[in-house]
Design goal:
By secondary structure, the chain is of the alpha+beta class. The chain has two helices and six strands; from the N terminus they run βαβββββα. The chain has a single domain (2-134), classed as Thiol Ester Dehydrase, Chain A. Helix content is 25%, strand content 38%. The longest helix has 20 residues, at 21-40.
């Protein structure tokens, strides 16, 4: 599981004093970037081919308040031929209370030709290794 420490910004907080739902998606994107780098050895700045989100689902469990210490945990939940699913948790790093959960389906995508493609075996193997580490 990849841990991403989040620096909450003043602009992330809405008039109700909690982190706005839209900004939580930005936190999950930071988790994805760390996951790509640490697990797949990729940067999120794709050339002609990379990854694209085709589906996501978010469950807001408890409000995340201003000045809470938060982290995003990201892990791979499923591996297919052209896609994999990531699971994210936004967590208070002091209490370990889960604030928000999100899943995202990532697809290998050729941006020049505008179609999906089968993930390279190297990616699949790295994803399998990461999944096995999480299950230990």
């Amino acid at each position: 599981m990849i841990e991403t420490k989040i620096q909450m910004r003043f602009a992330d907080i809405d008039i109700l004093g909690h982190v706005n739902n839209v900004n939580q998606q930005h936190y999950f994107d930071l988790g994805k970037c760390d996951f790509y780098k640490q697990v797949l050895g990729l940067t999120p700045f794709w050339g002609s081919a990379g990854l694209i989100i085709v589906a996501s689902q978010t469950h807001y469990i408890v409000q995340t308040r201003r000045d809470e210490p938060i982290v995003v945990y990201t892990r791979v939940a499923r591996i297919g031929n052209k896609s994999f699913t990531l699971e994210h948790k936004l967590v208070n790093s002091e209490t370990q209370e889960v604030k928000t959960e999100c899943t995202a389906v990532m697809v290998a995508y050729n941006f020049d030709e505008q179609h999906s493609f089968e993930m390279p075996e190297e990616w699949k193997e790295k994803l399998r290794q990461e999944m096995a580490r999480d299950q230990q």
